[in-house]
Every structure is written in C-alpha cells, then in structure tokens.
Amino acid sequence: MISYIAGHGEQIWIAFSSHITLFLSSMAISIILGLLLGIFIATGGGKGFGRALLTILGASQATPSIAVVAFSFLFVGIGKAPAILALVIYCLVPVVFNVVSGLLGVPGEVVEAARGIGMTRAQILLKVKLPLASEVIMSGVRSAATINIGTATVAAVIGGGGLGDIIFTGLKMQNNGAILVGAGLSAILALVVDFVFASVEKKVVPKGLSQGR
C-alpha cells in the first residue's frame, strides 16, 4: 500500500479530486432539487405527481447502485455527466423523503397558531415549518452525503473517474495496495463528510430543538 502511494501520487490525487468533484456537484443538485420537490409534495402540490415521485424514488433506492449507473449510461452515455445523474437519483431519496416527513411532522396546532397571528403561507413555511423540520431534513442530507461517497466509486465503470478508478485498476491488476488505497480513502472521506455535515446540522437546527433531545 505504501509503495503504491509512493509510486502513484499524481494518479491518486487526480482520482481524489475527481471524486470530490462528483460529490460536490451531485450533492448540490440533490439538496436543491430535493428541497424543492419535498416542499412541493408536503404542501399538497400535485398529489398524484407527489405519490408517483415518491414511488419512483423508493424503487430507485431498492435498486443496486450499479444498476442506476448503468441506467444513466443508457440515456446520457459515458463520462462525468451520467455519473452525476446517477448520484443525484440515488441521493434524492433520503433528501426528499426526509423533507416530506419533516414538514408533515410539524404539529398542526403550531401552524394554526402561526395563521392566527397573521402569517402568510410563505412565512409559515420559512419561519415555522422549515426550522422545526430542519433536524429531520439534515438527517436525510447526512445520509445522502455518506451514500454519495460510497456510490461514487461505482462511477468509474462508465468513465466518471474518482477513487473507483484506483479500486477497479487494483482488481484488474490484482494489486491489493491499490484496492486498499482507493477503498481506504473513500472510507476516510465518508467519515470527514459526515463530520462536516454534523457540524452544519448543529448550526442549522434551532438550539431549542437540539437541546430537547
């Protein structure tokens, strides 16, 4: 493992940078899209569409990640674009489900009290529902982030790059050092990402909610 690191430093750095790019791109899209879709569904917009979307997302979560990557390859081809598309599909599941669950879990009497003091629907959403649901929403985002890091290694099979390149190269060449480097960096990255999002969660969730746990 140490000899592989010493002899392939540049290759490891390129793969690591590519992995970070895949992660940041797909997570940014997943969070923005997941929030919008979750809010749309939870606020009663397009009930039929909402049920259909949740069913599709639930089915995609039950599908192996390699199958989702292959599916995106059929429609988008090879490279980073289909890899990011597959990661977004996979990461949308926990984000959307937790946004819907968090918003629907806000007590009705709290919403009624907000209406009673003259808040508009937008104000109730931004100042009451989203803050109260923030802990559940952040839990979904953290799950999506750790899923993303692991699934991104599969992106290498369609030319997406990342640490998967090192792992698959190690498998082809029967080089245990390469496999350990790729898998080890992926695991360390997942721990770092979870720590970062846990720190963000502490900043985002109102203190009254976190202290009540």
TrEMBL record:
Membrane topology recorded in Swiss-Prot or TrEMBL: Multi-pass membrane protein
GO biological process, one term: transmembrane transport
Subcellular localization: Cell membrane; Membrane
Chief place of localization: membrane
Pfam families recorded: BPD_transp_1
SUPFAM superfamilies xrefs: MetI-like
Alphabetical UniProt keywords: Membrane, Transmembrane, Transmembrane helix, Transport
CDD domains assigned: TM_PBP2
InterPro entries xrefs: ABC_transp_perm/SBD, MetI-like, MetI-like_sf
Domain (ABC transmembrane type-1) ranges: 16-197
Stretches assigned to coiled coil: none
Spans through the membrane: 12-41, 53-78, 84-106, 147-171, 177-197
Gene Ontology CC: plasma membrane
PANTHER family reported in the protein's UniProt record: GLYCINE BETAINE/L-PROLINE TRANSPORT SYSTEM PERMEASE PROTEIN PROW (PTHR30177), OSMOPROTECTANT IMPORT PERMEASE PROTEIN OSMW (PTHR30177:SF4)
Family of this protein: Belongs to the binding-protein-dependent transport system permease family.
Protein name: Binding-protein-dependent transport systems inner membrane component
Organism: Dethiosulfovibrio peptidovorans DSM 11002
Lineage summary: Bacteria, Thermotogati, Synergistota, Synergistia, Synergistales
